[in-house]
């Protein structure tokens, strides 16, 4: 059981008895003790009594025997100092648990999480990094908690641009080449022809019609582009160590046969209005800068379908066919309004029932040293494969470079921007991925050198106690991360744990300690290593036995 929750459950009846009503003890970690409750101060006004008097009465009534010592401090705080014996016993129990004392969720949900989502026939770039890394960490965390997680990689593989690409491919056999670089050059060549050659532009538009109508040769060309692109995406995912595979691809093409029905059903339910030839939904509460209602374009004036139609079809499929209880969309923050509008229209249409939640997991941008969007010196978008190549070149081990990139992305609140700084990211000290990897490897070295096996834990030194309390914080850290979908809370916890271990190792002899102390400290080392390993796995950061 989470220590804060245990203290809460013991304090709550004591507060209720004193106040004559239910009271949240509001137990928090404190620099003045292990934990602290300030609930007595909040009760002073309603009870018309001094808060210290209330706190003293609660302290006398609460049953914390064998768990913690309680004292009254300041204007009426309850300071809670956990008993060393209770800490040691709790850690011994965790040491024997494969899940480190974290039980699976009592009621698992089917969660569909949409992340990465690159576009066909284009090389993945730095703009895809955050969706891929943040999404994968959340998928790992929710999976580990026991939820039924369904990963979806909603790739852009349909629409007007493919007429241009397919016509160029039809006229230049083998144009896709055998590498991602070849595919990128192919795309650029097709774009140049489309922008400068009117006849080619006409043929490209006709090719779109052929694709949509199921023309055999055109579909075969399209499948070649799909296969080449997916192969390239999977190569990047493999280098990044993310859990997306070929079975998770679900392109926009998946839903094309449903779009006409989507429009028809929305129209039948009175949710579409014609605006300048387009069919639009106008969900309540969304307005533009001029104050006018903001449209969600479902079918364009030329008869084509917009992103909204595909997103609505995908949402309906995920709820009705996949049986989702929760929908998560890990997409950049600029798309916040779009998704809110899609969710609103889906609820109005009955495709997103009240018991199913839909959430846009937004994130900020990756910035260069100048504070602007990260670009190459030539001003081009940074290729993701090029970024990974540079990580390999800069790090002494490729795993260190990948860890540096992923941890830098996950260690801050996803909603904010961050500056891409190689020197800071690759540092072996400070809050970095390599720092965690070095900490884990150091513990492995201790275990290999030590004579003896881990034994029962006993707390005799302040540094041992600090490390032990840090280890007990694993479950609340995961809970805090999962609820608001904030992986940085796991990263912060792991850094604090690694720092606590470093202080422990500096102040407490392990290998040459007397046998009883050595076995206890080896147990602390082993439990720290397991906790770091599990937490790093949830972030997608590789734990290295040796560096």
From TrEMBL:
Span of domain DALR anticodon binding:
436-547
Query: What family is this protein classified in?
Result: Belongs to the class-I aminoacyl-tRNA synthetase family.
Q: Does the keyword Aminoacyl-tRNA synthetase apply?
A: yes
Identify the keywords attached in UniProt to this record, alphabetized: Aminoacyl-tRNA synthetase, ATP-binding, Cytoplasm, Ligase, Nucleotide-binding, Protein biosynthesis
Gene3D superfamilies this protein is in? Arginyl tRNA synthetase N-terminal domain (3.30.1360.70), HUPs (3.40.50.620), Isoleucyl-tRNA Synthetase, Domain 1 (1.10.730.10)
Q: What EC number(s) does the entry state?
A: 6.1.1.19
Which residues are the signal sequence here?
none
Where, by residue number, is the motif 'HIGH' region?
Answer: 118-128
Where does this protein come from, organism-wise? Actinoplanes flavus
Q: Which residues form the Arginyl tRNA synthetase N-terminal domain?
A: 1-82
Its predominant location is: cytoplasm
Broadest EC class?
A: ligase
Q: How does it assemble?
A: Monomer.
In terms of InterPro entries, this protein maps to: aa-tRNA-synth_I_CS, Arg-tRNA-ligase, Arg-tRNA-synth_N, Arg-tRNA-synth_N_sf, ArgRS_core, DALR_anticod-bd, Rossmann-like_a/b/a_fold, tRNAsynth_Ia_anticodon-bd
Supply the gene name.
argS
In alphabetical order, the GO MF annotations are:
arginine-tRNA ligase activity
* Name listed for the protein in its UniProt record: Arginine--tRNA ligase
Offer one Pfam family short name for this entry: DALR_1
Reaction catalysis annotation? tRNA(Arg) + L-arginine + ATP = L-arginyl-tRNA(Arg) + AMP + diphosphate
> Where found?
Cytoplasm
